[in-house]
Amino acid sequence: MNRQKLQEIYPDAFVQAVPTIDENYLSIAMENSFLWIPQKNLTQSEKELLQAISVPSATYVTSLDKEHSWYNSLFSNKPVPENKGSFRLIQVEFQSFEKNDLIALKKEIRTILPHTVELLFLSKNYGVIVEAFSEEALSMKELEGIFLALDSDFNSYTRLFSGSFHSFEKDFSQLFYEEEQLFLYELKRNTQNKVFDIASSSILFFIYYDVTKSYLMQSLFTEWFEAETIQIIAALWKMQGNVSSAAKELYMHRNTLQYKIDKFEQRTQLNFKKMDDLFLCYLLIRTFNK
């Protein structure tokens, strides 16, 4: 399929590294990417024709992969296969690999991230890792180190977005869509960083987008916070992250507050020594604590 010709026919179409579940667009698999075409520009016949002649991604996402429940959970609004636990999505953009290299990379990732429950390569340069929560889950810094080592082994260059852990009960299609948008935003905006997460990406993103309409942000608020946690975040923000000052503000022993913070950070993979993480929490409680 000639992408240039399609873009001439549909001038509003644009290229992305990943497919979309946005109902306003039809994403067509190309050789190394996906072409997003506004649905309003297409007749039903055109949609069927484009889907029929698009480059099949079966070289990378096999028919078996498409039958996997997690593929359906991410792209077809189906429930996740597990009925307990929490999961995060790690999106990976990489240089084009041949099929044999992708197979070897999959094995390496499953070894390094043993709690991986699904690994889908959706194109030659984009994949999604679904990881179950564990106390040994790697931090953003640790993930960066791991993928630097993999880049060296495979003579490649990868960039990744580490999502937050979400309960199995959540709508992962919508969560994936929103985290995908954050990743795409960072890939366009930031050409230097290798690893991104929700906290660092949300600050600038939600300057331009209404945070109150974000399912992702609402979901994080309901999963992360209860009355006491909200009070702790408010005090930490007021005291610019200083635990001793926040403890005095809360009339709480410093060690008790530190223990509660440590438990919260372990559960959420946040680090309040990073102001981005504290700001995200403050943004959530100010927006959704009604």
Written overview of the protein:
Residues 235-285 form the PucR C-terminal helix-turn-helix domain. This is Fis family transcriptional regulator. Pfam families: HTH_30 (PF13556). InterPro entries: CdaR-like_regulators, Homeodomain-like_sf, PucR_C-HTH_dom. It comes from Tetragenococcus osmophilus. The chain has 290 residues and is of the alpha+beta class. It has three domains: 3-55, no CATH class; 63-212, Alpha-Beta Plaits (2-Layer Sandwich); 225-288. The protein has 13 helices and nine strands. It has helices spanning 3-9, 44-53, 63-67, 69-75, 99-112, 140-154, 172-189, 198-208, 215-224, 227-238, 243-249, 254-268, 275-288; strands at residues 14-16, 25-29, 34-38, 86-94, 116-123, 126-132, 158-162, 166-167, 195-197. The strands form two sheets. Strands 4, 5, 6, 7, 8 and 9 form a six-stranded mixed beta sheet that branches. A three-stranded antiparallel beta sheet has the order 1-3-2, covered by helices on one side. The longest helix has 18 residues, at 172-189. The termini are far apart. Residues 55-66 have low confidence and may be disordered.
